[in-house]
Amino acid sequence: MLLRSATPPLPPGPRGPATLTTLRLIERPYETLRGWRARYGEVFTVRTLVFGTGVYVADLDEIKGMFTGDQSTLRAGEANAPLGPILGDRSVLLLDGPEHLRQRRLLLPPFGGSAVRTFREVIREVAAAEIDRWRVGETFRMRERMRGLTFEVIVRAVFGVTEPARVERLRAALVSVIDSQFVLLVPGALRRELGGHGPWGAFQRRRRAADELLYEEIDRRREAPDLEERTDVLSLLMRARDEDGERMSDAELRDELMTMLLAGHETTATSLAFAFDHLIREPQVVSRLRDEAEGEDDSYLDAVVTETLRIRPVIDAPERTLTEPREVSGWTLPAGIRVYPSIVLVHQREDLYPEPERFRPERFLDGPAESYSWLPFGGGIRRCIGAALAQAEMAEVIRAVVSRVELEPVRPEPDPVVVRGITMVPRHGTEVRVARVLT
Ligand code: HEM
């Protein structure tokens, strides 16, 4: 008699120790993922150190199925729970089900079309001030400069804080919290305050200091005489009401400000660093951008942004945890398993993007990217809330840089992609030299 195993088998995948698999994925994500797909097909199981067992999915129809229709059996918030001490437990990133939808419905309108026009003005100002500081012959890591810039855009456009002294106070306090992400690896039992000493105590102290500033901004805004006319995201959120007519509480506002900062500034800065890693090696793309910068038509500029996000998405696999068994490409995946729609593998498909490793903005000139074959912002009810802001920011910063300065690469080879934290980044942060100032 045949013995039936209690749980159906998972799709095959790399069998080496989790340490080795994790290292390969971190140090050479593109080669590793492509190699696994070539060997195991469109669905494969991977065991990694921190995240355990998960199933990667590269099949377009299956990914579309995960991002459309009823997604109530796919949880995303759970996977972000380790970020709780920074984001707070009311963050849209951490919630699932109706609570998630409530936050999402409140957060989406402030990022709509008319808001993006206002964002563009802020971005142009911040970019101009940043580029003014660049000197001929100077060498720097683009990712670091862009991080300063995207931070400022969020604080001004999303938080609505513009006085330079307040922006700097927030920068010092918030960056110190975000940069202590490593303490999230401290196991629960060792999370003791110890009078503010030790890594956990120091983290809590920094977080309280940052929270104090955030609550101060919320209080000031409530008192602001122009609250009703303001267009920054915080003011819009303070005026918004949910379906039951309820406003967001101060604690919810605090958690969402922190979430938008964490989700929105490094991702955009890294995407810009990737854009420049290509642009410094593609003079013909830059000269076309310069030619078109004079006119009204932004289609080539937008295609450069779209192609950057295709060839170098900063997040590979937005995770979903199954709450019920699910059929995926002929496999029955059990409840509790993590599933990763692989953005990299979709964006690297030869049939969708011929010569996928070539940076060719022209491929997007004939029309917008198709929703389920271009996924840098994930999809479905978890699709990135800041996608329009991020793309506008990338376009405005690229426009400002190419029309004001000429940059050259410091290293001859393109910067290799590595995984750091949950994002993919250029290993050396895209080092550039300012060759010429044009205006
Ligand atoms: C190029 C820059 C950015 C990239 C590549 C990016 C990418 C992503 C991805 C892949 C997700 C997960 C989607 C999913 O699970 O299906 C996400 C979610 C999110 N992003 Fe972004 N993002 C960027 C910029 C921003 C900005 C500027 C903001 C806000 C100011 C933002 C706010 C969020 C929020 C709040 C979520 C959670 C949505 C939810 O769970 O419902 N992101 N982003």
Can you put this structure into words, describing what you see?
- 47% of the residues lie in helices and 11% in strands.
- With 439 residues, it is α+β, with helices and mostly antiparallel strands.
- It has a single domain, classed as Cytochrome p450 (Orthogonal Bundle).
- It is globular.
- The mean pLDDT is 93.
- Bound molecules: protoporphyrin IX containing FE (HEM).
- The site of protoporphyrin IX containing FE (HEM) has 27 residues, from helix 7, helix 11 and helix 15.
- The site of protoporphyrin IX containing FE has 27 residues, from helix 7, helix 11 and helix 15.
What's the arrangement of secondary structure elements?
Blueprint: H1 18-27, H2 29-40, E1 43-48, E2 52-57, H3 60-67, E3 74-75, H4 84-87, H5 97-107, H6 113-132, E4 139-141, H7 142-158, H8 164-178, H9 198-223, H10 233-239, H11 250-279, H12 283-293, H13 299-311, E5 320-322, E6 326-328, E7 331-333, E8 338-341, H14 343-347, H15 387-404, E9 405-409, E10 417-420, E11 423-426, E12 431-437
Parallel strand pairs: 2-8
Antiparallel strand pairs: 1-2, 3-5, 4-12, 5-8, 6-7, 9-12, 10-11
Helix pairs in contact: 1-2, 6-7, 6-15, 7-11, 8-9, 9-11, 11-13, 11-15, 13-15
The structure holds protoporphyrin IX containing FE.
Which tags fit this structure?
439 residues, alpha+beta, Cytochrome p450, five-stranded mixed beta sheet, three-stranded antiparallel beta sheet, 15 helices, globular, binds protoporphyrin IX containing FE
What is the CATH class designation? Mainly Alpha
Structural class: alpha+beta
Distance between the termini: 82 Å
Going across the major beta sheet, what is the strand order?
A: 1-2-8-5-3
Biggest sheet statistics: 5 strands, mixed
Mean pLDDT: 93
Beta content comes to: 5-15%
Query: In one word, what is the shape?
Result: globular
